[in-house]
């Protein structure tokens, strides 16, 4: 016999877990949250399906249902028979209630996005063992070879002299580079990050206005709302400024490009454990220029952006190809990493992908936030800010490596497929439980936002059956609804009779909420409960009205 009551859990728990943080992905649900659902609805040996698997957390959750420590961390107890117990207070007495049984569940994971299924595969792959140690040693060697690329002078007094000498160095000649930096090693410190500022044109006098100089108070680090032109003293708002552009010949695509003009304005660097800040000096500019003048000796993606809802913003700025998202120095090091680090290809590419979001020109710098001025890229957008950060690539590799070493445990492996959930190669009535966190209307343009990541993977999303609203793809709310109906009909077909599906919902549009309810019921499911993720349950009719879209919901059917 099988009987379960509807279940809702807080899906935000576990966001500080190393597994969650080893690799980012859009709207990622922590595996610790999904574990609660799987424990509630399944028994050991059951098969779980997730057709919008993202980074594969459902698979990780299924595996970890056999990990007693992981279960105990959720607040459950385990008895000598392997029963998972929930301790509840009833009229002042503690009562033990059996909620599940410890043991592995199997998972079938599927997603339309190759970026998603690549992450899922690595998270759910069998034991890595020695490969992780090999990766660690390879990264240490890579950092030793290239740490000079983010050096700056501790004291800028001799910057001009050293800049003149460094002009003669060929940075592709490792011997020349090593000789120079060995000679002056005591004069250099490591850069943590550089801040770049857009340049604008005053509409009154046509003078250049460096956004950083015009808006940031050097003493307080606060950003002024009014912008004053240093030449004519005109007080302006940002929307009144004219963006300055710079033309260059792009040797990677053999075209003349016209992109926003930027200048480096601040360097944050470390001496031992202390951090300092300085304006870029002549040596910093020469080192950067050396990279800019390179014909890159390593492969990097140069894919052209396709017109879309989100991609139109960078295209409007002349950022038309994937490699334009990065400085030449960062491109050089990302290419060198893929070319020179000779370890397991899956692990290497997983680490490489995990650092990409922190290395684009979309990383915002907001000095008014003090020590947290490095805000990162804007979520679910391709936005290029007026002040952006060039992070030290080597630091990012090291930082993410530590997370990955903690995250990739000895899992036994699940099935991962790159395909549409509208047509699954799975037998009828063969799945014991389904957990879905699908796209909702136009809230996230997954394939557009994954374009840069997938260009590095050399495999792109086939977005023909991508379940979103998207004008560029010619998909309306009706098209989205029909695609979701097809996906949920497939889910209904493969799920065993009497078994449960959980759908996480997050969207503020009543029309999308109505569409998803229609799709669930059209597929044949019976909605049993709709619960807010803060665990507050309202009356059934209250929860299925359009007001419910103001919060994240869990639909049990």
What does this molecule look like?
This protein has 557 residues and is α+β, with helices and mostly antiparallel strands. 32% of the residues lie in helices and 22% in strands. A seven-stranded mixed beta sheet has the order 19-5-1-20-21-23-22. Strands 6, 7, 8, 11, 14, 15 and 18 form a seven-stranded antiparallel beta sheet that branches. Strand 12 (245-250) and strand 13 (255-260) form a beta hairpin. Helix 13 packs across helix 14 (393-407) and helix 17 (477-494) packs parallel to helix 18 (510-523). 39% of the residues are buried. Mean pLDDT is 91; it is low at 535-544.
Short description:
The chain is α+β, with helices and mostly antiparallel strands.
> How many distinct helices?
19
Unreliable stretches covering 5 or more consecutive residues = 535-544
> Outline, from the CA principal axes?
globular
Strand content is: 15-25%
Give the helix/strand class.
alpha+beta
Q: What percent of residues adopt helix (DSSP H or I)?
A: 25-40%
Number of DSSP E strands: 23
Estimated radius of gyration: 26 Å
- What composes the largest sheet? 7 strands, mixed
Lateral strand order in the biggest sheet? 19-5-1-20-21-23-22
Distance between the termini: 18 Å
Mean pLDDT: 91
